[in-house]
Amino acid sequence: MSKSIKGTALVTGASSGIGATYAKRLARRGYDLLLVARDQQRLDDLAKALAQENGVRVEVLRADLTREADLALIEQRLRDDEAISLLVNNAGIALNGTLAEADPAKVGALINLNILALTRLSSVAAASFGAREQGAIVNVASVVALIPEMFNAVYSASKAYVLSLSQTMQSELGPRGVRVQAVLPGVTRTEIWERSGIDEASLPVEMIMEVGDMVDAALAGFDQGEVVTIPSLPDADDWARFVGARAKLGPNLSHSRPAERYRITG
Description:
This protein starts with 7 loop residues before the first strand and ends in a 17-residue tail after the last helix. Strand 5, helix 5 (about 155-175) and strand 6 form a beta-alpha-beta unit. By secondary structure, it is of the alpha/beta class. It has a single domain (about 10-260), classed as NAD(P)-binding Rossmann-like Domain (Rossmann fold), CATH 3.40.50.720. The mean pLDDT is about 95. A 7-stranded parallel beta sheet has the order 3-2-1-4-5-6-7, with helices on both faces. The protein contains 8 helices and 7 strands, in the order E-H-E-H-E-H-E-H-E-H-E-H-H-E-H.
């Protein structure tokens, strides 16, 4: 089987949910695939189906990205394989409950996966794609990056990091011909809720998007050249106004003297 002219998409967290759906949609678009996750059987089953249905190359790499050796293996593959043209950083976990109640080990695992692994893979992809002056990086964040009070503190903060990282990367890599997109899903029907101990039935049904609809919207945003895609947002001008309000703060975020409202009198 010849290599795809679109190159290879490396998708993390690819065994189920958003990652598996990205794999299916990208295979339909003609990408070869390199699928990364912990569940070998699910990866193998998905790879076999996608190769048969779409006539693309599909390779699987079982890896736990919270383990140094496994993460280093994927980093090396990103460095060495010039066929990789798209990185989808989807792997992530969530937590439930307050920070005061949190299990330190689970907090550490979340930070290692949602932040550290994503950053290291993004860094390698930035260097590799930037050197070739082509390629794209898709980082899956969450709307809780914008409404942190609504969900677990550590998870929300990790997704705010992903959003900030992605925006900065786009400003760095855009002039070099590399695209970066941050995808901010709302509540999406995947296994992440059960794994984090949240009862999906307790959530309003009108808030829950089917995973296929979410990924289709994210890819439509990618096709439209968006840096930030919020699949459930009806009016793109709302995001533009949000960005504009942030920009308005810019001239006053750093001065040599405190603002008058903070001066102590007497």
